[in-house]
Amino acid sequence: LASSMTFKQRGEAAQNLVARRLFNIMENKQSNLAVSVDLTKSADIIKMVDQVGPHVCVVKTHVDIIEDFTADFVSKLQKLAEKHNFLIFEDRKYADIGNTVCHQYGGGIYKVADWAHITNAHTVPGPGVVQEMSSSGNLATGEYTKETLKIARDHSDFVIGFICQSRICEDPEFICMTPGVKLEGGGDSLGQQYTTPRDAVFSRRTDLVIVGRGITGVTNPEAVANEYRLAAFASYQERISQ
Ligand code: BMP
């Protein structure tokens, strides 16, 4: 069962090279923390990523919110990914027909396919990747989750995991990633609902927590990122030693 295996064992079980690499980083950096750097100026993002980089396995971006996006931003981000050994996840949530998604993913201004190790898609249009939302009243439940899992299994060469609020399968190679995480819980004024790292990784048995404002909104992001890393990794260790 995935939830009782180590990240190292799961990396060995995975066929997909990106999944193998991610499990490897998680094991070596003792980090199942992704930071979502949802800032709107390139320089602020680069500065934040350099500070939190030592503590994360993944840096998640939303490049379409950046006001001054350039190729130079991408090359700086890639250098930091090498320096700190993390993967870049562009949280684009593709949701159109294949032909349009090909253009959106490979072309346009952002050329996401050139630099993002990981991206994601809704499964509403059919085979793709998975999205299960953390916001209240979201519709990604029941049959949607089942169908999504089927799509992932049928395309496991391309799919490395899911965005989900609780573990949706025990397949060792799929990584369950949970956004909407804050040490103090709570929510925001637009429907976001927060769970704690331990609730996500120990109680709901997911693998990786995605933290945005809980880290990017504090005055000492590096120290706080380390706190989240320790909390999420301890919850993983507690889970596998059960
Ligand atoms: P924050 O921790 O600041 O609330 O940020 C959460 C991040 O995760 C945002 O980038 C958001 O787009 C993303 N996210 C989410 O919150 N819930 C989901 O269901 C899916 C997401 O990608």
Automatic annotation (TrEMBL):
It comes from the Eukaryota. The keyword Iron does not apply. Transmembrane segments: none annotated. Keywords: Decarboxylase, Glycosyltransferase, Lyase, Pyrimidine biosynthesis, Transferase. The keyword Transcription does not apply. Residues 32-228 form the Orotidine 5'-phosphate decarboxylase domain. Pathway: Pyrimidine metabolism; UMP biosynthesis via de novo pathway; UMP from orotate: step 1/2; Pyrimidine metabolism; UMP biosynthesis via de novo pathway; UMP from orotate: step 2/2. This is UMPS-like protein. The lineage of its organism: Eukaryota, Metazoa, Spiralia, Lophotrochozoa, Mollusca. The chain holds residues 222 to 463 of 463 of the full protein.
